[in-house]
Amino acid sequence: MTGSDVTRDGMEGAHPGRDALTGASTGRRRRRRGRGEQAMVPDAEFSSYYGKPILNKPTWRPLDIAGYLYLGGLAGASSLLAAGGQVTGRPGLARVAKLGAAGAISMSLAALVHDLGRPARFLNMLRIFKPTSPMNLGSWLLASYAPLTVAAAAADVAGRHRIVGAAATAGAAALGPAVATYTAVLLADTAVPSWHEGHREMPFVFAGSGATAAAGLALACAPFRQTGPARRLAVLGAGLELGAFQLMKRRMGLAAEPYEKGKPHWQLRSAEVLTAGGAVLATYAGRPGHTGGRARLLAASAGAALLAGSAALRFGVFHAGVASAEDPKYTVVPQRERLTSRARSDGD
Amino acid sequence: MTDDTDASAATPGRSEDPVRGSALFGPQPDVAGEAGYTDAPARVGFFTDTSVCIGCKACEVACKEWNAIPEDGLELTGMSYDNTQGLGASTWRHVAFIEQRKPLGGQEPGVGHEDIDVFAAAGNLGTSPSSPGPGATAPEPGSAPAGAPAGEISPVAPDGRTELRWLMSSDVCKHCTHAGCLDVCPTGSLFRTEFGTVVVQEDICNGCGYCVPACPYGVIDQRRGDGRAWKCTLCYDRLGVGMEPACAKACPTDSIQFGPLDELRERAAARVAQLHAAGVTDARLYGEDPQDGVGGDGAFFLLLDEPEVYGLPPDPVVTTRDLPAMWRHAAAAAASLAAMAVLSFVRRPR
Ligand code: SF4
Ligand code: SF4
């Protein structure tokens, strides 16, 4: 309350709001950062409309869409392991990878449909062919890829129709890499600062993350003696994922900050630890000294860590993007800097 | 995912010339033609002159009524008179209120009137052009008496602290020349009309929500419960029968002006010049430049401060400008994934 009163003798007590300065608490503001976090860039002063976001944040449900990204990567890279396993005479590896690809892509599609505001209209995605829409191209891609993975898995399990199965396995392997990487374009092709600014490196991050997930699944489920390629893929994938991610953060300027704060921060830290740890463990499991139960146990834990690490990465990337859309700073400050430097270079 | 995809994405008119940019970026004098219409009517849009907005919200109400938009939360925000907060699925016009400790251009705050004999002044009412009779609210520019700025009513407080200005601005979908929402919509639900505007077809939208984060202005949104995406249609139904949009019709000060875009741009340029001449140096146009990151807005503004003060992005760029680069990087990443897999298998089997 105001604390002032009108009595018979006039006004008593002062109106505390009387000396308020118009606009003093709005407009320009300074942000304070969270506890114990390192400043990557100095805090910027900027204007906003009562601190309201400029962008409308994605309405996607985290579990559906981060899950869709994760399962797409797992499926796409698994198709490569499936084809490789088949060609090099590793039927156990091939079967796990084929089943994994078919299962993951089905769940990925289910998550995508579940996230729609009007799931019954899913097929409207295939009404047209529209290269400017990564989701449209992705739908066409999945519409061709998913049946191939299912055919490959079914032929393998049934042990019949070998020619059809081999053709489906080859087809799925041809489309797999695109399935694992187009989702990065899907995220980057938005106005969300922490996604868009990573549009060059994110496809590589997702390629690496898909590779580690597929390697993880194979390590966890395939016969140990056939998992050599999976172990090597885990190491290569982890290297690509972690390297590309560091590069991405370094190049994206202020938009890298949401990756270093709050929930995305610990998700991405866990992703790093799990992925790197999983790759090391996988290599260790493959040392000549390890055989039998001990090797299987090592491989299984390496696989679980790799699978979890890839999932954590997708969730971290998802949440960092949403955080960057929720704070007007990430939209205003880089755009303002762009205008200032353009004005400066026009001036000279 | 090969490079063929971006080649087809950018046809026709792929070349990046300054007059006519690519299909994804740059100026585009004929948006309807680009979208495949032959002899389309002139492109129309809004010029929202915020310098005359009085914050009455008639546009918000007219829009809600005409388009039968549902209520979307009755909250008190405690920030100014703005309880609407921003554009969204069920808010297609939004009036922003900004209070600033800053004088309006042409306004002289803190001018004392103690030495004026008000009774004598009243007696002179209507006898000279500098003292107009009842019915006139402000003196003509150039004929103002000392202390009363032309065309303005000078607000004065006893302590002389009158540095208040109140900015009001009615925001709306920009109907971008290169609209991110339209580019990314996978169903073709969002489309370009013959008037050059951008409209969602509610019978096609499947609520994928892709358009929401693709809009650089935070305009379009998904309606909860309904699931589909909604935004300003620039009253497509009214345009079809030759009427102006409901908000422009309802605006009592002509802050919202509707018309052919070329004409609006001319009118806007003249208005800025007029305001600058009157000392309102803050006046600037926002979104009218076909060279900007979205190829110019179909709905542009005259603002009195930086765009971000009104909640507008200072230099928006349509995200699909970078789409060819994104597909190229994705193709390279896909190739590296395949290469890694091959590498994993070619090593001597253990
Ligand atoms: S991108 Fe945003 S502002 Fe532009 S037409 Fe689409 S909804 Fe409107
Ligand atoms: S939500 Fe509807 S309008 Fe928006 S991109 Fe998806 S299908 Fe198109």
From TrEMBL, chain A:
<comment type="similarity">
    <text>Belongs to the NrfD family.</text>
</comment>
<feature type="transmembrane region" description="Helical">
    <location>
        <begin position="96"/>
        <end position="117"/>
    </location>
</feature>
<feature type="transmembrane region" description="Helical">
    <location>
        <begin position="137"/>
        <end position="157"/>
    </location>
</feature>
<keyword id="KW-0472">Membrane</keyword>
<dbReference type="GO" id="GO:0005886">
    <property type="term" value="C:plasma membrane"/>
</dbReference>
<keyword id="KW-1133">Transmembrane helix</keyword>
<feature type="transmembrane region" description="Helical">
    <location>
        <begin position="164"/>
        <end position="184"/>
    </location>
</feature>
<feature type="region of interest" description="Disordered">
    <location>
        <begin position="1"/>
        <end position="38"/>
    </location>
</feature>
<feature type="compositionally biased region" description="Basic and acidic residues">
    <location>
        <begin position="1"/>
        <end position="18"/>
    </location>
</feature>
<keyword id="KW-1003">Cell membrane</keyword>
<dbReference type="Pfam" id="PF03916">
    <property type="entry name" value="NrfD"/>
</dbReference>
<feature type="transmembrane region" description="Helical">
    <location>
        <begin position="204"/>
        <end position="224"/>
    </location>
</feature>
<dbReference type="InterPro" id="IPR052049">
    <property type="entry name" value="Electron_transfer_protein"/>
</dbReference>
<dbReference type="InterPro" id="IPR005614">
    <property type="entry name" value="NrfD-like"/>
</dbReference>
<feature type="transmembrane region" description="Helical">
    <location>
        <begin position="65"/>
        <end position="84"/>
    </location>
</feature>
<keyword id="KW-0812">Transmembrane</keyword>
<protein>
    <submittedName>
        <fullName>Polysulfide reductase</fullName>
    </submittedName>
</protein>
TrEMBL record, chain B:
<feature type="binding site">
    <location>
        <position position="247"/>
    </location>
    <ligand>
        <name>[4Fe-4S] cluster 2</name>
    </ligand>
</feature>
<protein>
    <submittedName>
        <fullName>Ferredoxin</fullName>
    </submittedName>
</protein>
<dbReference type="GO" id="GO:0046872">
    <property type="term" value="F:metal ion binding"/>
</dbReference>
<dbReference type="Pfam" id="PF13247">
    <property type="entry name" value="Fer4_11"/>
</dbReference>
<feature type="binding site">
    <location>
        <position position="63"/>
    </location>
    <ligand>
        <name>[4Fe-4S] cluster 2</name>
    </ligand>
</feature>
<feature type="binding site">
    <location>
        <position position="181"/>
    </location>
    <ligand>
        <name>[4Fe-4S] cluster 3</name>
    </ligand>
</feature>
<feature type="region of interest" description="Disordered">
    <location>
        <begin position="1"/>
        <end position="32"/>
    </location>
</feature>
<dbReference type="InterPro" id="IPR017896">
    <property type="entry name" value="4Fe4S_Fe-S-bd"/>
</dbReference>
<dbReference type="GO" id="GO:0051539">
    <property type="term" value="F:4 iron, 4 sulfur cluster binding"/>
</dbReference>
<feature type="binding site">
    <location>
        <position position="53"/>
    </location>
    <ligand>
        <name>[4Fe-4S] cluster 1</name>
    </ligand>
</feature>
<dbReference type="GO" id="GO:0030313">
    <property type="term" value="C:cell envelope"/>
</dbReference>
<feature type="binding site">
    <location>
        <position position="251"/>
    </location>
    <ligand>
        <name>[4Fe-4S] cluster 1</name>
    </ligand>
</feature>
<feature type="compositionally biased region" description="Low complexity">
    <location>
        <begin position="126"/>
        <end position="152"/>
    </location>
</feature>
<keyword id="KW-0479">Metal-binding</keyword>
<feature type="binding site">
    <location>
        <position position="211"/>
    </location>
    <ligand>
        <name>[4Fe-4S] cluster 4</name>
    </ligand>
</feature>
<keyword id="KW-0677">Repeat</keyword>
<feature type="region of interest" description="Disordered">
    <location>
        <begin position="123"/>
        <end position="155"/>
    </location>
</feature>
<feature type="domain" description="4Fe-4S ferredoxin-type">
    <location>
        <begin position="44"/>
        <end position="74"/>
    </location>
</feature>
<feature type="domain" description="4Fe-4S ferredoxin-type">
    <location>
        <begin position="196"/>
        <end position="225"/>
    </location>
</feature>
<feature type="binding site">
    <location>
        <position position="215"/>
    </location>
    <ligand>
        <name>[4Fe-4S] cluster 3</name>
    </ligand>
</feature>
<dbReference type="InterPro" id="IPR014603">
    <property type="entry name" value="Formate_DH_Fe-S_su"/>
</dbReference>
<keyword id="KW-0411">Iron-sulfur</keyword>
